[in-house]
TrEMBL record:
Organism classification: Bacteria, Pseudomonadati, Pseudomonadota, Betaproteobacteria, Burkholderiales
Source organism of the structure: Paraburkholderia solisilvae
Name the UniProt record assigns to this protein: Fumarylacetoacetase-like C-terminal domain-containing protein
One Pfam family linked to the record: FAA_hydrolase
Record flagged with keyword Membrane: no
Recorded superkingdom: Bacteria
The keyword Zinc appears for this protein: no
Alphabetical keyword list: Metal-binding
GO molecular function: acetylpyruvate hydrolase activity; metal ion binding
Annotated ranges, domain Fumarylacetoacetase-like C-terminal: 28-228
Length: 233
């Protein structure tokens, strides 16, 4: 007996603010530990370490306004508000001075994390995928093209849960700024149009539970919101 199967060829896309077209997502890179206060609250790493990266699957990206099921395999589901950079031009070994030429636009994103699983993997010196790279772990708002908003290097970044502010900071507090992130990452991978880079989170990360409403904002890029649904079996 031959098993039947179907292969989905659907491409994840993000809306582009003020445009009827959409941005096809290729890869999702994330920067770990890029704000000093977050390093201190997590009690991990050297504040002078170079940036390091991990990835999420492209279909982990979910659009603004979604309901996220509380994922399985965790009792500590946490939020991390981040500036997202969308790459619009291919490049490898990109100089810092040319890095911004490769940026299509910016968005507000949230790196959702199974913190208990992340800590467990770190303690066992295993990859972080269990804690970071699960389904619907990368909510992201619409992209704002550089042609409309310019380059985003400073400004308030905040997150609230049920109207209570949890995270607040400024993009200028990033240890590694956007050009430095792009330049460093492009020495490890050939960046392609369609790649997203989540650039790290300020202090104040914390847990959410079913029924919570989360709102994240970056100055100049507006806000995104979503709710936490029931536990996924």
């Amino acid at each position: 007996m031959t098993a039947s199967y179907a292969v989905s060829l659907a491409t994840t896309v993000l809306a582009i603010a003020g445009d009827a077209s959409a941005f096809p997502v290729r890869r999702v890179y994330c920067v770990g530990r890029n704000y000093v206060d977050h390093i201190r609250e997590m009690k991990e790493g050297d504040e002078r370490d170079p940036p390091f990266f991990f990835q999420k699957p492209s279909d982990a990206v979910v659009a603004n306004g979604a309901e996220l099921a509380y994922p399985p395999c965790t009792e500590d589901f946490q939020h991390e508000i981040e500036l997202v950079v969308a790459i619009g031009a291919d490049g490898v070994n990109i100089p810092v001075t040319a890095a911004l030429d490769h940026v299509f636009g910016y968005a507000v994103g949230i790196d959702m994390t199974r913190r208990d699983r992340q800590r467990e993997m770190r303690e066992r010196m295993l990859p972080w995928e269990m804690g970071k790279s699960f389904d619907a772990s990368a909510p992201c708002g619409p992209l704002h093209p550089v042609a409309r908003v310019g380059h985003i290097g400073r400004g308030a970044i905040t997150l609230s849960v049920n109207g209570e502010v949890r995270q607040t900071g400024d993009l200028a507090q990033m240890i590694w700024n956007v050009p430095e992130i792009i330049a460093n990452l492009s020495t490890q991978y050939e960046l392609k149009a369609g790649d997203l880079i989540f650039t790290g989170t300020p202090a104040g990360v914390g847990p959410v539970v079913p029924g919570d409403r989360i709102e994240g904002a970056v100055e100049g890029l507006g806000a995104i919101h979503f709710t936490i649904g029931s536990r996924k079996s």
